[in-house]
Structures are given as C-alpha cells and as structure tokens.
Amino acid sequence: MLDKNGIAKRIAQEIQDGSYVNLGIGIPTLVANYIPTGFNVVLQSENGLLGMGPFPLEGEEDPDLINAGKQTITTLPGSAVFDSAMSFGMIRAQKVDLTILGAMEVSENGDIANWKIPGKMVKGMGGAMDLVASAKNIIVAMQHVNKAGESKLLTQCSLPLTGVRCVKKIVTELAVLSVLPEGGFKLEERAPGVSVEEIKQATAGKLIIEGEIPEMKI
C-alpha cells in the first residue's frame, strides 16, 4: 500500500507541463513536493496566491506565507499574491487546468462529498464547490476505506455532496481508478504489493477490470 506521500507522488505524474493546478487541503498539498523537475507548473491557492513552491524546510517557515489549509509554504520567483475575490474569479473563469482534492466519499458516477459530516460543526464549504464546478479536470486523493474498514468508493454518496459527476480520476493507497462517463470505477493501476482481489473487496461501487492491471510506478 501507499502512504500519503506515495499517493501524492503518483498524482504528480498526472500533471502536465505548463498547467495551472489547484491543490486542496490534506494529501493534495503534498503534491507540491513532487512536481517533475523541469516542468513549468503554476500552483494556485484559493486564498490568493499563484506560484506556490514546496513546503519550507524546518526553521525556514514564514508565518505570513500560508496556503488555504493554513500550512506554511514557499513561493517561487514570479509568484503573485492577491485577494480571495480575484482568486475565485480565476477559478470561476475556468483558468485552473487541474484541481486535486481530498474526499470522504466518491460515487461511481463521479459525485464527490468532501466538506461535511452531518452532526459535526464545520465553518462552511470553503472553496470546494467553486473548484468542482469550474475545474477542467478533477483528481481525488483519498484513502480507499475509512477507519472502520468501509469503502469510500460507493454506488452513491451518503454524505452531503460537494459536486455532481465531476471527478475524473482517483488515487488511493490501493489503486488508480478512472471514473467512466457512463458510470463505474475503471481500475487502471494497483499499488505495489496490492492484488486486484484486495481492491475488489475494498470497493463498494461498480468496479470495472479489463485485462492485466499493471502495478504503479512510483
């Protein structure tokens, strides 16, 4: 199985040179550390920043430089800082090529639930709704099962939805899966040491398996 950094490293392989990418809170923020060398990729944070770099080394943190999850970050030469209104103007105008988000549940139709557990206090949805409604491509970084061992890849989401039919690909500790336009999780790759049978057992939604499934190259 992959750890959180392994998931982030695999997702970084999906990023195209010259793209604008938004990294959500949680595992997605780790992707900044694995952008391929030589790629011209601009990372956007919805709190008002273009040009995020990797996380700072210990002792080099600047408390005035944070991402949307309030983690300290670095900036790259040419980065720009602005207000959140301009940031969301960029998002809603579909200037972001790829959004990478965490999720609590994803359905086989590509619905995503990632903002609220009923009965628990939350401050609000944040930027997630705008991101899933506006991004050209959405990849989810998540754990395949919850703490009780129950699948988070479902026929239908049970939690309040953030977006409908928007997720294109999912990377978990077990597998890489595409969401097909007609519905269903297509198994593309399996994590090192993980069998197809283990992925079947961990997936509650419709799982489509065609031919030999290659092992991820991390």
Written overview of the protein:
The protein is of the alpha/beta class and 218 residues long. It has helices spanning 4-12, 84-92, 128-134, 196-202; strands at 20-23, 42-45, 49-52, 75-81, 98-101, 105-107, 112-113, 138-141, 153-154, 169-171, 175-179, 185-190, 207-208. The mean pLDDT is 93.
Strand order of the largest sheet: 4-3-2-1-5-8-10-11-12-13
Computed Rg:
17 Å
Tell me the span between the first and last alpha carbons.
12 Å
* Beta-strand percentage range: 15-25%
Average pLDDT, all residues? 93
- The count of β-strands is 13
What structural category arises from helix and sheet content? alpha/beta
CATH topology: Glutaconate Coenzyme A-transferase
Q: Indicate the CATH architecture.
A: 3-Layer(aba) Sandwich
CATH class category label: Alpha Beta
Helix coverage percent of residues? 10-25%
What keyword list fits this structure?
single chain; 218 residues; alpha/beta; Glutaconate Coenzyme A-transferase; 10-stranded mixed sheet; 3-stranded mixed sheet; 4 helices
A few lines on this structure:
This protein has one domain (4-208): Glutaconate Coenzyme A-transferase. It has 218 residues and is an alpha/beta fold. The chain has helices spanning 4-12, 84-92, 128-134, 196-202; strands spanning 20-23, 42-45, 49-52, 75-81, 98-101, 105-107, 112-113, 138-141, 153-154, 169-171, 175-179, 185-190, 207-208.
Question: How is the secondary structure organized here?
Answer:
Elements: H1 4-12, E1 20-23, E2 42-45, E3 49-52, E4 75-81, H2 84-92, E5 98-101, E6 105-107, E7 112-113, H3 128-134, E8 138-141, E9 153-154, E10 169-171, E11 175-179, E12 185-190, H4 196-202, E13 207-208
Parallel strand pairs: 1-2, 1-5, 5-8, 6-9, 8-10, 12-13
Antiparallel strand pairs: 2-3, 3-4, 6-7, 10-11, 11-12
